[in-house]
Amino acid sequence: MCPECGEPLIVFELDGVEVDHCLACGGTWLDGGELELIAERAGASPGKLTNALEHAKSQGKCAKRCPRCNRKLQTIMVGETNPVELERCPVGHGLWFNPGEMRSVIAACVDEDEGRAVARFFDDLYRYEIEAETEAKGE
């Protein structure tokens, strides 16, 4: 179930990586290790993005719960210049990204192979949502 709105998460698969996505609120759950797997499948080494997520310090617990173990998620701040608030499972089951957060985190790391690989993956995976947003804005 979605940590944000409680609706069922839909599993999307691309290049052998399964990503859980909420169609109701637009959030994304990544199981532990999936970001590294995405980068690896694209031939990129773990870098700035993985390092930032692994070393982010907990800011405390929040009301959202892990869809795997139901424990309260921890809030973390990722990034130095414009930090993004994310939620992660305290035992390592994964990370929760509200709509737009993935793009903000990737933007901070897009200057390296890992960031570009992850950006391409999510652009391909969510192409239908990106196209719908563009059409809605009249662009």
N- to C-terminal distance:
33 Å
Q: In terms of structural class, how would the helical and strand content be classed?
A: alpha+beta
How much helix, percentage-wise, in residues?
25-40%
Strand order of the largest sheet: 1-2-3-7-6-5-4
The major beta sheet can be summarized as: 7 strands, antiparallel
**SSE series:** EEEHHEEEEHHH
> How many helical stretches?
5
Low-confidence stretches: none
Question: Nearest-angstrom radius of gyration?
Answer: 14 Å
Beta-strand content estimate: 25-35%
Mean pLDDT across all residues, rounded?
82
Judging from the principal axes of the Cα atoms, what is the shape? Answer: globular
Number of strands: 7
Word description of this protein:
The chain is an alpha+beta fold. It contains five helices and seven strands; from the N terminus they run βββααββββααα. It has helices spanning 34-41, 48-55, 101-107, 113-125, 127-137, and strands at residues 10-14, 17-21, 28-31, 58-65, 72-78, 84-88, 94-97. It has a seven-stranded antiparallel beta sheet. A hairpin with a 5-residue loop joins strand 6 and strand 7 (94-97). Helix 1 (34-41) crosses helix 4. The longest helix is centred in the C-terminal third of the chain and has 13 residues, at 113-125. 29% of the residues are buried.
